[in-house]
Amino acid sequence: MKLTYWQLNLLILFILLSIWFLVSFGFGIIWSENLDQIKFGGFKLGFWFAQQGSIYFFVIIIFIYIFLMNKLDKKFYSNHQEKDKDKD
Amino acid sequence: MSLQALTYLFVGLSFTIYIAIAIWSRAKSTNDFYIAGKEVNPVANGMATAADWMSAASFISMAGLIAFLGKDGSVYLMGWTGGYVLLALLLAPYLRKFGKYTVPDFIGTRYYSKAARLVAIICLIFISFTYVAGQMRGVGIVFSRFLEVDINVGVVIGMLIVFFYAVLGGMKGITYTQVAQYCVLIFAYLVPAIFISILVTNNPIPQLGFGDQISGTSTYLLDRLDQISEELGFTAYTENSKTNIDIFFITAALMFGTAGLPHVIVRFFTVPKVSDARKSAGYALIFIALLYTTAPAVSAFAKMNFIDSVQEVEYESAPNWFKNWEDIGLIAWKDKNEDGVIDYYPGNALKGVKPKYTNERGKYNERVVSNDIDSSNLNEVYIDNDIMVLANPEIAKLPNWVIALVAAGALAAALSTAAGLLLVISASISHDLLKKMVMPKITEKQELLFARCSAAIAIFIAGLFGIYPPGFVAQVVAFAFGLAASTIFPVLFMGIFYKRLNKQGAIAGMLSGLISTSSYIIYFKFISPDLNNSNNWLFGISPEGFGFLGMIINFTIALIVSNFYSKPPNEIYQMIDDIRKP
Prior knowledge:
The structure holds two protein chains of two kinds. By secondary structure, chain A is mainly alpha-helical. Chain A has one domain. Chain A has helices at 5-30, 32-35, 45-77; strands spanning 39-40, 43-44. In chain A, strand 1 (39-40) and strand 2 (43-44) form a beta hairpin. In chain A, helix 1 (5-30) packs antiparallel against helix 3 (45-77). Chain A is elongated, with a radius of gyration of 18 Å. Chain B is an all-alpha fold. Chain B folds into two domains: 3-305 and 397-579, Sodium/glucose cotransporter; 306-389, no CATH class. Chain B has helices at residues 3-24, 30-35, 42-53, 56-69, 74-98, 103-110, 114-147, 151-201, 206-209, 221-232, 244-259, 262-265, 274-310, 320-328, 387-390, 392-395, 400-438, 444-467, 473-497, 503-527, 546-564, 570-579, and strands spanning 331-333, 357-361, 367-369, 381-383. Chain B has a two-stranded antiparallel ribbon. Chain B has a two-stranded antiparallel sheet with strand order 2-3. Chain B is globular and about 75 Å long. The mean pLDDT of chain B is 82. Chains A and B meet through helix 1, strand 2 and helix 3 of A and helix 5, helix 10, helix 11 and helix 13 of B.
């Protein structure tokens, strides 16, 4: 079965939003205290995710999204010109 | 040069740049005025978005808030950045493809309903004014401390500057000024942070320095903070004092609220292509993250410096900044045990929390406050969170030019956000209310005139908020995010991802989110503030986090109601198919 552009888009969203949830709500809140047992430098790991790590991951997630969507756009719509520019 | 001369120089210079940019980028059409002619480069748009987003609250208050909250403060860090992931992945590209001017435009068209548009306009205006009030207060504080003019004069100067570039330049003027303002504010934030990081830990990168050892010792900064916090009776700095469920809900409400804030969403309408909308969300988050990852480091340094320099110090030999900020009204000291020494401990020093100053001076020349003493604790110091960033360079004894720079940066942060909000308000009045609902026959030229007029009126009202600050500003910020999360985000999201949602469902959803969230917040913040504690909260969720529950209510009601009414018309299905293509 071949997935459509929209289905692939949803798949990408699902995977990336799961990572988004894991690094913030997961590591930064729910399991934060468990991760605090691990230390690197002066940081407890759970504290680091809550105040630093989650933000770095957010940036990475968006750029992976940009990369994947540009590839997807090219695969499905490479023949189309950017007709959107003068739409209104 | 004296501190004041330097401050005038820096602030004057930055204001000149903003005005020059405004003249250069005047708006000539409604297209220019609302969405900058859709020709903004995604990197520039990312910077403008970041400046628009990072308000006086982010610049001035956040680090101080985190310094006092410790790990609990993470809700702001994650909440105000994580929302950009939702924006970039779930909303921005599709709304850009839709290609109109405002958020109510999308809601009105997608749900083929003027009523839906009207509900959206009401939510939007409420959210935006809430926000603006805070910005103008920030402008007033900075002017009164650093330029030593009256707060009101400061607000009027701020209003004139914003008036100039917002009314003249519209979105186009605002966007390019915001690019300049971003550069000023980030520079002003990073320079003192780097200085202090080197001072405290010998590490020039604050993000790493704050996990490093205090210079000259082998103790980690965070360990030392935990230790002194516990010694004084506070919760350890790196541990939560709120419950996990509350932290979860507050973070979620802030994230979904961020993604539903109209003045942020509208930024993604200004770029040329759909792919640019994604790209500029990514750049925006990089630029925002630069400040947001520095802020917790600033908090940790500031907290330690603060405790080290005032705890158990005699008032008469307290550092100058302590007395300066006492004069401004952001610090108060009440010598409970009458030993002339400053004691800083957990709890409120004064009954009613905020100090009520009298004109008298006390035994040690401190300002006398008329509040009753809160004798349930030993704390003698009231500190407003805001001073942590503003006084940080003074506390760390940095050179005067750094302090002047912070003043210019704080003004840039406040003005850029105020301008962005005012534009959203004016567009929703001239475009959504007048052009689309009340008088559809006006020409583009008339609409542009109306847009300028409503921007001018909005600035005037915002100025009044600055001069006569409503006492409830701090409380209503939770309101703005709660409402954005519980009203605007769900209808935008379902508008794109769920074709079957009809207008009845959308309106019922927005109203249920609006009513549930506002009654919960109004009840605990205004009607019975004394009941505002975890014993009375629903599922242990504080009013700050209720927006997320309001959002779930919105989704549920919208889906149920939608099923009782007929499908949306075929044009809507086609429209959604169209916005789903790049």
